[in-house]
Fold Membrane protein.
Amino acid sequence: MPANFLLLLAAAIWGFGFVAQTLGMEHLSPFAFNGLRFLIGTVSLVPLVWYLARQGKIHLGTPKDFAIGCGVVGVLLFAGASLQQVGLLYTTAANAGFITGLYIVLVPILGLALKHATGANTWVGCGIAVVGLYFLSIKDGFHLGYGDTLQLIGALFWAMHILAVDHFAKRISPVLLAMMQFLVCGVLSLLVSAAIEVTTVDKVIAARGSLAYAGLISVGIAYTLQVLAQKHAHPAHAAIILSLETVFAAIGGIMFLGESLGLRALLGCGLMLLGMLISQVPLRYLIKSRHQKVS
């Protein structure tokens, strides 16, 4: 229960983080906001990495693994975060949260290329989630909105990012890998921002609240909670609880941004959430549970 509570808290933090990201862009452009928040997240993890290093619990791996691992996960994080942040200019926090959550379905599908086992529940969940995506995002004239399209492409990069982290976290300490990927993402974002955006100190100060939440809490604290909790939680249970991030994103959009969801969008959100949950629960468990109830 303590582990599940920490995972739920992390999901809530990430979900409401969509609100902070949206509000932050009232003052800052997407790449500037991302660059600053990920560098803040990097700094927030320095004390934890330093403490673990003092305890002898930090593993660097080989120089090659360290360089490639930090580079790959950092670039994938940059791609996913950039598409998500720019997409928020053209869609709602609720839509962004639910569509981003499709990575939970995409991870096992992409895992096929790595010869990961994929059960029937994944395909059922994927089908239901796609139908939900249609009701949530397909506009009149049968086209996907621009912002939703960016979020959908971003979900693909989030899925690849998760698989990359799973691969390299076996070679490098997860907390160190997290800090370094934040650093890579932050630097790349600021380089792009310097090339195409105009940022002033006044704008940064105006966005300080959103940056503090997105950097310190959403990036730094929530990730740490996830790492601590997943030491004691079943992976399937963890994925299901973390998928509730999408629900908190919708709640946050309604509460703080004045967003609203019509019946069609609510149906889409419900189907996407159902698909995400089904994709994480093997059908044999559902059948076994049903059999036990009948018995």
In short: DSSP finds 14 helices and two strands in the chain. The first strand starts at residue 138 and ends at 139.
